[in-house]
C-alpha cells in the first residue's frame, strides 16, 4: 500500500474527505454485522510521516464505530425510545433533514415510568433508529432507517423537538398525508460526537509541531534533550526559583521542576511523561504543576479522557488558588464542556465553568443592571442624597393621594418610610446589593491582568468601604434630621460641636466611596469589554482571558473554532493519559500554538475501552503515553495503601519501585475494622460454596453478594460503636454483580454522614479510593476462561483502591486453576498468612450455609474442596448418582439434614442407631448405610494415593431402604475386582477416642487395587494410587446405573 493511502479506502472505495455520518449511513445491516467490513492493519510503533501517522488510525476507528453500532443494535430492546408526534421536512437544510417532535423519552421497553431511575436526555450526535411499529423493534418487522440528531430545539408544549438527518428520504407529507407518525418511534442507540471529532482531527493538518515529535521515526529510546539556545538554567536553578520543596516529595518535585524548565523553551518542542502509580500523589503533583504554570503566565490546556477526571483536576487547582487567598481572582482558569456530564450544578467548580461565567458577565456588562448603571446609581445617590429624598417624598405624596382609601396602618407605615434616615438606609441597600454583585463578578471572573492590579485593589477597597458606610448608617443613635443636615452640603466641613458623634467617620466614608467609585468607573470605561448582546463575544472573551483551560480531550475540538478569537495556547497537559486512545489525543495536539506536551498517567492501569476485537488487536486502544519510548518521571512514594495492601501490586506491576510513605507504615494508620485476623489490613477469603449465574452477557454470584452484605452490616455496627467516619467501597468485575448488591443494600446507607458505601465495577472505580475495599471476584466455575478478570490492568486497579483494608472474596479453586495472575495472588496470600477459608470463620460459615439453603444451592457444597468439607478429617468422594439424587430432594430441611450427617461422618463421628453395615456376598467388602429420615445414605471406605495412601469415604447414593439391595448387588460387581489386600486395608479402623479417623500407609507399601488386568475396565493393572477418578466414575456409571 502506498504511504498516505488509508486501508479503508482500498476496501470500501470511500473518498478521503467523506463525512463520517454519510459513511455510517451507507452501511447496510449486513455491513454493520460484518467484523471484516474494513481492512484493519496493526497500528505501528513508529511512523514515516504525519500522513502515515494519521491514516493509521482511520480504519480502526471505522471498525470500532461499526462494532459499537452493532453492539447497540443487538441491545436495542434496552435502549431509550420515544414516540414520534410529528415529523416534517426541514426545508432550509435540504433533503433528508427533518424537524421531529416526540412525546417523551422512556428508558427501556416494558418498564413503568415510575420505575425509571433516570430519564435519558437526547444530545446532538445521537445515532437513532426510526422504525414502526414499536413491537417489531426486537424482531424483523418493517423497514427501519438510521438517523442522527443535529440540533436540540428544547422542550415545547410537552414534546421534545429535534433536527434529524436520516440515512434515506422519508418522503413528502409524512405527517399530513399518511399519518405514519402515529406508529413511528425513535430509538436512541449511541452518541457519536467524540468519534466525529476524532475523525475530523485525523483529516486535518494544522499545528503539527508536537505530532512530529511523537512520530518516533526511529524505534530507539528517545535521549533526553536540552535546548542550546535557551539560557543555561539547570533544574536546580529552577528549583530555587519556584520554591515548591515544602509542597512536594522528592520525586514529585523533580518531575515538576524538570517539566517547567523545558516548557518555557521557545525554540524546541518537548514531550514529558510523568508516571504516577496508585496513591503516589499524581493529582497533587499535577495540580501544583498547573498552579505554578498559572503563576508563570503560561497559557495551558489541560485535558483528560473523562468528565470526572477533568473536574477532579480543575477542583484541585481551584482549591490551591482559594487557599492562597479567599478573595482570589478566578478569571485565569476556565472549565468548559457538557454541564450535565460535568455535573456542574452547585459544585465547588461552578465559578470557573464557562456557561456560568458567561451568564454572570452578561449580567455584569449589561446596560440595565450592569456595572456602569450600578456605579452611576451609587455615585448619584452619595452626591445628592437629600435631593433624591425630596424627589421620593414628592412621588410618595402623589401615591398616597392615589391610595387614600387604605386604612390608617398603611398611612402610618408610609409616614415612617418618609424619614430621611429610613430612606437613606433603604436606598443605599437597594443600590449597594447589585453594585457588590458586579464588583464580585469583576474580581472573580475577570483576570487581574486585564482589569489591572490597582483597579483590583480599588474594587476590594470599595467593597470594604460600602460595608463600613452601611454599618454607620445602621447605628442606633443616629438622628434623621441631623443626618439630613449633614448630607445637605456634600463639601461642608464638619464641626466638633455638632451633636452627631459619628459625623467625621460618616463624612469621610461618604467621600471615600465617592472618590473610589468615580476613579474606578473611569478606569473600567477604558477596558475593551465584549458586546453584551453577543453571547459568542462573551465566550470568546472568557477563552481569551483564561490562561489555564480545562476540558475533556474530545471537547477540546471546540477550541479549533475559537483559535482566531484567542491568543494561542502554549502547552498541552493530558491527565490520565494512559486511558486516552492515541487518536483522541490528536484533537488537542493540533491546536494552534501548542509547542509542548506533558502526559501524566499509569500504563499499568486500565487502558481505553475498545469494543471491536479487530481494532483491539490492531492496537487501537493504545495511548500515546504507552507508545512513546521516552524516559518517564516516576512518582515513587505511595501515600494511600497500608503496606500489606501495596505489597503484591508493587512487586507484580511496578517491580518494587514504589516506596511506602512513613504515614502508611505508622502503627496508627488504621480505621474502624472487625475482630479477627481474617479482617486485617489484607486478606483473601475463600468462598468455595458460591455459584456463578449468567445474566445476559454478565455474571453474578449471590453467595458472595450475601457475604458482602453481611460484612457491610458488621462494619456499620462497628462504625457506630467507634464513632469514626468510615468509607466503604464494594467492587466487582461484573455489572450484574453490581446490580445485585445495589438491590440488596438499597438506600440503607445513603443518609449516614459518618458511614458511606459506594458500589461500582472495577472499571468504574479507577481513580477512586476508600477506607475499606471489599472485592468480590464472582467466578466459581472451574475449567472456564476468566480472561476478563485476569487482565493485569483490571486486577491492578481492583487491588489498589483501599487505604486501610482490602478484603478479597473468591473461589480459590477456580482462580488457582485459571493459571492467571490470581493464582500468584493466592499463593502470595498463603505465603504471607493472609489466606482464610470462609468455612473456618464461624460467623461466615454458618451464614453461608443459611444463604445456600435460601438460594437452594446446597448441592454446590457436595465437593471435596467445598467450605463444608475442605478441612474435614475424612476426604469424601461423591458419586454422580448421589449428586443427582440430592438435587431431586424437594425439602431444604431434608437437604440440610443430609449435609449435617455428611459433616458428622467427615469429622469421624459414627452416629449409633442409624448405621447398618452390609457385607457384600462375593467381595466381602463392607457397605454402610446411614439413616436420615426416610432415606439412607450409602457409603463405603476406599483408598486413594496422595502424599501417602489414605482411606476416604465414598458416598454412592441416597435412596429409600427398598432400593439399597439393588445398589449393593451392582456395587459388589465392582468390589469383586479388588484385591484381598486392598479390601482388608479398607476394613482397618483407626480410632482417636470416640472418633474414627482415616488410616494411612506410606507410598512404599504399593497397594494394588485390582486382582487381574482382565477384570479391569481400563485394561490396566491399577494400584489404588494410580487409579484415575474419571475412570472410576465411568466404571461405576457402567456397573451401577440400572439398565432400561
From TrEMBL:
Q: Return the SUPFAM superfamilies for the record.
A: P-loop containing nucleoside triphosphate hydrolases
Recorded hits in Pfam families, A to Z, give: AAA_11, AAA_12, DUF6469
Entry's PANTHER family?
Answer: DNA2/NAM7 HELICASE FAMILY (PTHR10887), P-LOOP CONTAINING NUCLEOSIDE TRIPHOSPHATE HYDROLASES SUPERFAMILY PROTEIN (PTHR10887:SF515)
* All copies of domain DUF6469, residue ranges: 80-208
**Ranges of residues in domain DNA2/NAM7 helicase helicase:** 248-612
Which organism's genome codes for this protein? Nyssa sinensis
Domain (DNA2/NAM7 helicase-like C-terminal) ranges:
621-812
One cellular component term from this protein's GO annotations in UniProt:
chromosome
**What name does UniProt use for this protein?**
Helicase ATP-binding domain-containing protein
Instruction: Tell me the domain of life.
Output: Eukaryota
